[in-house]
Specification:
The protein is an alpha/beta fold. It contains twelve helices and 14 strands.
Length: 405
Amino acid sequence: MSAPKKVVLAYSGGLDTSIILKWLQTEYGCEVVTFTADLGQGEELEPARAKAEMMGASQIFIEDVREEFVRDFVFPMFRANAVYERLYLLGTSIARPLISKRLVEIAHEVGADAVAHGATGKGNDQVRFELAAYALDPNIKVIAPWREWDLSSRTKLLEFAEQHQIPVAKDKRGEAPFSVDANLLHTSSEGKVLEDPAIDAPDYVYQRTVAPEDAPDEPEYVEVGFKGGDAVSVNGEALSPAELLTKLNELGGKHGCGRLDLVEGRFVGMKSRGIYETPGGTLLLEAHRAIESITLDRGAMHLKDQLMPQYAELIYNGFWFSPERTMLQAAIDASQTYVTGTVRLKLYKGHVRTVGRWSDYSLYSEAHVTFEDDAGAYDQKDAAGFIQLNALRLKLLAARDKRVK
């Protein structure tokens, strides 16, 4: 690859991406533009601007993309009830296509010929960033320093930082206890003290939820309103997508909901152990499944359940901008027309469960399921013929098996 003249770097302001900024300047002699996304990670981002300025970034982009993140990425994913390997709510995975999208857009705006990221060569994020970038611009150059440089240890990174006068926080002098990724949907903690999956994660790993045993001794009831498959209100108050997820995070975190200790199969082949906190997402998933239970036809719901694992895997593996994800999204969205109504949740000691749901579009008919007199709504004698027709092939099989034995 020929040396780039201008690179747009996904920049957090932390040690690794600061080193990458300087490395790009020294290795390629190129101009570096930084992009820092406010995804609701809960950190002050202005220090990132000051650090980028100090290190000679030619342009600095810091953008609040929280509403776009929840509206255009998180909500579509939750319409599918997407979970990876039965448990993971895809909090890191779903943020990467948005970051890549803005990297490519900014590259076009400033006339850059490359983008760069700080993902390592062992993880999923390198795949997600780059697949998204190439899907949006097949001619874009992507630089992944972790796959190119010889800074293969924390010691070498610190030596490079000192050589180039890059500020290093004092707590970075030793081995970091674990690595954290955070956005409005979740926090993810991996590595170091968490690498042995047989050992319980220390309490200090958790940042967004209280320990369930320390949660309030009284349950709390929360009502989530939906329109067309997306949550639109909490306890009757209309909220924007980002405001709504923020509120659910607060409620779920208070009651210790949404903790997950998971060993997952990475796309690159290895297994990894992560500690995830997704309080608001856990409430949202429970509520969405509940409103679907009364508004979705059985056939549509069962088909969605079959499509979901494939859809979740596409997101996990970095194929958000693929035609197959778009096709699945169209099918999922078509099912959500009447997914409108309200769900009441009960939060208590790390658990969330549905205790009520109602909708003007409900398919639930009390007249048909009642154990009392149904006033002719359902003729139970009809079930005999239904059973006989469905039993016919089973009878033929049983007769054949008896005959040949």
